[in-house]
């Protein structure tokens, strides 16, 4: 039996590939592992059956036999460790790739998410105009550091790895902010990730869910 992941029945990202099941779909596509998807509503995510898989009532979850996982970092790492193609065989390079996974989630994503939430939900607040430049500058700081690390390289540490997969999915959250345009090398790095066939397959699969929901 293939593993089963959960995804939004009707994603709030409107098919832009921002929902976090995209990371897991992409990882499974990269390693050539077939998978099933169980779509869940926002109401179902708060019911006991789903909370047994993710106590925080979020997606995605991952089930394979008697193993159930939540948190995209843990799921993608599990996939990468079980299949070839997402982690280097050299032990040191492997550890560095895992470090980049953590960096994507713990260093890059928090200021990016904070900026995105402000842009979505705080535009009508009196403090928004004053707070926005501060949030943007926090993201710029991280983008500048990442740009210096890339130094014109295609990927973060040699060949494409799970670290790049996680980093690209995090950076894509900036696609509508305009900030990536200020760092052409980082924008090109994201574009290289998006051009990978496995990414396109994952994106199309997620988009198809939104399109089907829109027609119903």
Any overview of this molecule?
With 216 residues, this protein is of the alpha+beta class. It folds into two domains: 4-85 and 198-207, 3-Layer(aba) Sandwich (Glutaredoxin), CATH 3.40.30.10; 91-196, Glutathione S-transferase Yfyf (Class Pi), Chain A, domain 2, CATH 1.20.1050. The chain has helices at residues 21-31, 48-51, 72-82, 91-121, 128-150, 162-171, 184-195, 197-215, and strands at 4-8, 36-40, 61-64, 67-70. The protein has a four-stranded mixed β-sheet, with helices on one face. α1 runs parallel beside α3, α1 crosses α8 (197-215) and α4 (91-121) runs parallel beside α6 (162-171). The two termini are 29 Å apart. 33% of the residues are buried.
What is the fold's blueprint, element by element?
Blueprint: E1 4-8, H1 21-31, E2 36-40, H2 48-51, E3 61-64, E4 67-70, H3 72-82, H4 91-121, H5 128-150, H6 162-171, H7 184-195, H8 197-215
Distance between the termini: 29 Å
Q: H/E series, N to C?
A: EHEHEEHHHHHH
Q: How large is the share of residues in beta strands?
A: 5-15%
Q: What gyration radius follows from the Cα positions, in whole Å? A: 18 Å
- Parts with pLDDT < 50 across at least 5 consecutive residues: none
How many extended strands? 4
CATH fold description of the largest domain: Glutathione S-transferase Yfyf (Class Pi), Chain A, domain 2
Shape: globular
Question: What's the CATH first level of the largest domain?
Answer: Mainly Alpha
Secondary structural class:
alpha+beta
The largest sheet has its strands arranged as: 2-1-3-4
What is the mean pLDDT?
Answer: 95
CATH architecture call of the largest domain: Up-down Bundle
Helix content: 55-70%
Question: What is the total number of structural domains?
Answer: 2
Number of H- or I-type helical stretches: 8
The major pleated sheet works out as: 4 strands, mixed
């Amino acid at each position: 039996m293939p593993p089963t992941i959960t995804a939004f029945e009707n994603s709030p990202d409107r098919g832009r590939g921002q929902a976090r099941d995209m990371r897991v779909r992409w990882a499974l596509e990269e390693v050539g592992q077939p998978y099933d998807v169980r779509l869940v509503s926002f109401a179902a995510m708060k019911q006991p059956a789903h909370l047994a898989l993710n106590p925080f009532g979020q997606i995605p979850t991952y089930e394979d036999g008697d193993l159930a996982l939540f948190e995209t970092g843990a799921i993608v790492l599990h996939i990468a460790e079980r299949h070839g193609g997402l982690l280097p065989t050299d032990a040191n390079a492997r550890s560095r790739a895992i470090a980049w996974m953590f960096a994507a989630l713990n260093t890059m994503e928090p200021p990016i998410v904070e900026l995105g939430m402000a842009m979505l939900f705080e535009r009508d607040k009196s403090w928004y105009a004053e707070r926005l430049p501060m949030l943007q500058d926090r993201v710029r700081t991280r983008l500048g550091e990442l740009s210096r690390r890339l130094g014109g390289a295609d990927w973060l540490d040699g060949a494409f790895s799970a670290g790049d997969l996680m980093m690209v999915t995090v950076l894509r959250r900036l696609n509508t902010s305009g900030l990536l345009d200020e760092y052409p090398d980082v924008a090109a790095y994201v574009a290289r990730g998006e051009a990978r066939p496995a990414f396109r397959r994952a994106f199309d699969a997620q988009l198809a869910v939104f399109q089907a929901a829109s027609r119903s």
